[in-house]
Write a structure and sequence with these properties.
The chain is mainly alpha-helical. It is built from eight helices and no strands. The longest helix has about 30 residues. The radius of gyration is 18 Å and the shape is globular.
């Protein structure tokens, strides 16, 4: 049986990168918040579940693709880590730039009129799957915990863990940010949050670019 300990740190780093990523409002998060505020919590929750399902799809596609690539070309991990590290450093730059900006978050209702509960869930899935940055983000997130010799359960743990986190966090957004007051509170703390995000992205990007072992172990 494969030892678990050499892979645990990488898996949790992938979880951390994912949590930090969804702490920064993107199109999916803003859609959930806007729907909860402008329509109702039920619609916001439905949209959140659609987004979380899209997260699961992206995670599965990326994990399967990277696992298959590494099984055939183990040396490809270097290219993947360099690519992922550079993308994380780019996210760090954007987070620091956002922290320096006085512009607040924009929360609006989805275009296209009101929908059924299923319609909001479907719309959430579409929003997540058509996000042009999602593929880049998932390559960076999963490459933090995946290595050429990693057993299949490592990719599975990353996929399942991030899906659970996505469900919980997006549902919290739908519940908590269903009032303008919470949006204002978040707006006041936005610069601190973005600065924290930038620090983490910078750390994760640097580790990916300097990690030569492929696995976060204690050698």
């Amino acid at each position: 049986m494969d030892s678990i300990s050499p892979y645990v740190a990488g898996i949790f780093l992938s979880y951390g990168a994912f949590l930090i990523a969804i702490a920064s409002p993107g199109p999916n998060v803003l859609a959930v918040i806007g729907t909860s505020m402008a329509v109702n919590r039920q619609s916001g929750l439905a949209l959140a579940m659609g987004v979380a399902t899209g997260t699961l799809t992206w995670a599965m596609l990326t994990a399967v693709g990277l696992s298959a690539l590494l099984a055939t070309y183990a040396s490809a991990i270097l290219i993947i880590k360099v690519f992922g590290g550079l993308y994380l450093l780019w996210l760090a730059y954007k987070s620091f730039r956002s922290a320096a900006s006085a512009h607040d978050i924009d929360v609006n209702e989805l275009a296209g009129g009101r929908r059924t509960t299923w319609g909001y869930a479907r719309r959430g899935y579409i929003i997540q799957m058509t996000n042009p940055k999602a593929a880049l983000a998932w390559i960076a997130i999963i490459s933090l915990g995946l290595a050429p010799d990693a057993p299949l359960w490592v990719a599975g743990a990353i996929v399942i863990g991030t899906f659970i986190l996505s469900v919980v966090i997006h549902l919290i957004y739908a519940l908590v940010f269903s009032t303008p007051t919470m949006v204002r509170i978040y707006g006041h703390a936005r610069r601190v949050i973005q600065g924290t995000l930038g620090t983490f992205f910078g750390f994760a990007g640097f580790r990916l670019l300097t990690d030569r072992g492929g696995v976060w172990d204690a050698r």
